[in-house]
Structures are given as structure tokens and as C-alpha cells.
Amino acid sequence: MPLLKRLAVRAAAALLVLAPGVLIGPSAAFAACPGVEGSLDPGPEPVQQTRLGLKRAFALATGAGVNVAVIDSGVAAHPVFGGKRVEGVDLVDKSRPGGGQGADCDLPSHGTGVAGIIGAQYAPSKSTYYGVAPAANLFSVRVWGEKKPSPDPGAADWLAEGVEWAVTNKMNVINMSITTTLDSPRLKEAVKRASEADIVVVVASGNSGDQQGKPEYPAAWAGEIDGLIAVAGVDAVTGERVSSSSSGPWVGVAAPGDNIVIPASTGEKFNLDKGTSFAAPFVAGTAALLRERFPDLSAKQIVRRIEETANHPAARRDDLVGYGEVNPYAALTADLPAEVTSQAAEPAAPPVLTADEYTRTRQWALAAVAIAAVLVALLMAGRFSVPRGNRRGWRGE
């Protein structure tokens, strides 16, 4: 089955089941998209990559054949993607700001950074920058078109539409680095559908600090929907928790979320950024590695493996960083005990005896009955002998 599942995943990457009216491919309006220029060269290998030991992980998996949906602000063409535009869909209606400009238009340079962390190609001769799962199939699901994302009552519906697209188009992993404060039934139902479709859903925990009274979604549903994991942020240099990172009982793990190098959405350079938006894709990339290496594991089991192999805090788990900072190599190599099932064991079938075994068993049974009969007779004889002996003056010791 592992081979069949790999073939199925790769076939899905090559031939997506598209919803009516959805076009996949590069945008004709790309050249007119005024994204954000970069100001940095990647320089030496970024600390976020060395901190997680990604090169060790690449000997085991690179995310090959795994479809990852980046539900965000679009993913622009950048050299880290091998000179190719990331395929996808623009769900931003033309009536909305920035709408209708294509899946490869990223005005705030948010989705491009997220996608780079997940799946920038590993090409040491060309760049020191690479993603967690450099061979994964990235799909840009553009749901936000504004230059500077800000809370909007419609955001939950837009995110839901993105998740629905990912389910229809058979994604294996979803990354959502845009959150909403609205507890939306539609968005929750969409995430449940993704869970039922066995998709790993990775979401940012949010950037509201310690304000646990203001949960952000979908993160706050992580405890009740299988296959959903919320990610907090730690500093890529020090490993300390980022103070702006939202906390709560729904936090699953943490990942680098400050001092993060990301590709810019215009030009060939990079920028530094921060936030749980950029922590989540490290976990989404790890999920892609696991989906390649362990194709028979369910989304729920993938999430469990990520949590169990993280670098745990002193209390093993807390509301600030969950089970701790993600550890891709450990997730790929750990020998975890099998999950305990609630199903009772089937009763054992009775043994089947040969003719000779049946004869011997019957003879032993008859002999046992005869011996038992003799013992009963002796006991009965003793019962009548004791009173008679008492009358004759017998005494016990």
C-alpha cells in the first residue's frame, strides 16, 4: 500500500480535480502586481534552517509528491521556487481590494514568505536559502488581496472558501497563516471537512500575546478537530518564545517566528519578518516530509508524531509553546509506540484437533471421570466409617 499511496499522491499532483470555473496557472496580470521589494541577500545559511537541522532531514524525505495548499495572500514568482510561478487559484473577487490579479500576485509579501519557508527549492549551487520540504508541490490559494492585511468580518468566509478549494482539489497539507477572531460556523465546518478528507491542517496561533480571552480561529479548534495543529512562535536565534505569540490550551507546538528570512514578492531579494504567520509553515513543511516518509499515517497520527517528537518544555507541554519547538529530524526518525485502539480483541477460535488427538483427548477425559468416581466413592465410604469408628472408641490426634 505505501507504493500505491505514493503513486496516488503524485497522480493527484499532476491532475487536479478542479471545481467548475476554477482556473489553475500563472496570472496574466503578474507584471502589474505591485508587491514588496526585498532589501537583503540570504548571505550565509539562515539560522532558521540550521537551527532545525533540515539537511539531515533531507536524507530521509524532501516532501516529494505531497500537495501543500498555501491559503494566503498569493505566492509570487521568486528564484527560490526554481524560476517557476507557483500554481494556484485567485479566490479574491474583483469587487474586493486587490481582487482578480491572480494567484501569483502577493501585494503584502506574506504568502510568498510562507511558501518559501515550506518549499523553497534546495539548490546549494544557486542559493543558501531553502525550505523545509523543498520537493513538495506548492499551490497558492489566494484569499487576501489587500496590501496590509487587517481584521475583516469577511475573512472567515474567505478562509473557508480556501479550505473548501483545498479539499476539492485533494491537497495533503494545508497551511493557514491568516487568522480571524470570528468563531465562524462555515470556517469550522470547512476545517472539519478537511479533517474528514485526511488533510493535515496547520494554522498560526495568532499574535495577540497572552490575551487568552481572545482566541483566534481556526487555532482555537485544534483540541477538537483531528489533524488540526496550531503553532506558536519562538525566536530563530535564541529559541525564546516570542512575546506576541498567542497562547492557550490549543497550542500544539512552536517554531521559529522571529528573525525569519523570507523571499520578497518583488525582485530576487529577501526580508526579515516575524509572527506566528511564519512559524506555521515550518510545521506545514514538516508535515509534508512526514506524508512522504510515512504515507500510511493518518492526519491525526502525523500531528501526534509532530507533537511527541518536539523539543518539550520543562513541563512537557504548556500553553505558551505547546509540546515545544518542532524537530523535523526527530519526527522522521522516532520510533513511537502504536496508538492504543478502543476496539476489543476478537475471541480466539477453538483449536481444531486431528482424529488421533481427538481419540487421545477422549481417553484422557474418560480416565479422569473414572478417577473422580473412585475418589467420590472413597469419600462416601469414609463418611459412614467415621461415626462407626467413634462408636468403637477411635480418637483423633
From TrEMBL:
<dbReference type="Pfam" id="PF00082">
    <property type="entry name" value="Peptidase_S8"/>
</dbReference>
<protein>
    <submittedName>
        <fullName>Mycosin-3</fullName>
    </submittedName>
</protein>
<dbReference type="InterPro" id="IPR000209">
    <property type="entry name" value="Peptidase_S8/S53_dom"/>
</dbReference>
<feature type="active site" description="Charge relay system">
    <location>
        <position position="110"/>
    </location>
</feature>
<dbReference type="InterPro" id="IPR023834">
    <property type="entry name" value="T7SS_pept_S8A_mycosin"/>
</dbReference>
<feature type="active site" description="Charge relay system">
    <location>
        <position position="277"/>
    </location>
</feature>
<feature type="signal peptide">
    <location>
        <begin position="1"/>
        <end position="31"/>
    </location>
</feature>
<keyword id="KW-0472">Membrane</keyword>
<dbReference type="InterPro" id="IPR050131">
    <property type="entry name" value="Peptidase_S8_subtilisin-like"/>
</dbReference>
<keyword id="KW-0378">Hydrolase</keyword>
<feature type="active site" description="Charge relay system">
    <location>
        <position position="72"/>
    </location>
</feature>
<keyword id="KW-0645">Protease</keyword>
<feature type="transmembrane region" description="Helical">
    <location>
        <begin position="364"/>
        <end position="386"/>
    </location>
</feature>
<dbReference type="InterPro" id="IPR015500">
    <property type="entry name" value="Peptidase_S8_subtilisin-rel"/>
</dbReference>
<keyword id="KW-1003">Cell membrane</keyword>
<keyword id="KW-0732">Signal</keyword>
<feature type="domain" description="Peptidase S8/S53">
    <location>
        <begin position="63"/>
        <end position="324"/>
    </location>
</feature>
<dbReference type="GO" id="GO:0004252">
    <property type="term" value="F:serine-type endopeptidase activity"/>
</dbReference>
<keyword id="KW-0812">Transmembrane</keyword>
<dbReference type="GO" id="GO:0006508">
    <property type="term" value="P:proteolysis"/>
</dbReference>
<dbReference type="InterPro" id="IPR023827">
    <property type="entry name" value="Peptidase_S8_Asp-AS"/>
</dbReference>
<dbReference type="InterPro" id="IPR023828">
    <property type="entry name" value="Peptidase_S8_Ser-AS"/>
</dbReference>
<dbReference type="GO" id="GO:0005886">
    <property type="term" value="C:plasma membrane"/>
</dbReference>
<dbReference type="InterPro" id="IPR036852">
    <property type="entry name" value="Peptidase_S8/S53_dom_sf"/>
</dbReference>
<dbReference type="InterPro" id="IPR022398">
    <property type="entry name" value="Peptidase_S8_His-AS"/>
</dbReference>
<keyword id="KW-0720">Serine protease</keyword>
<keyword id="KW-1133">Transmembrane helix</keyword>
<comment type="similarity">
    <text>Belongs to the peptidase S8 family.</text>
</comment>
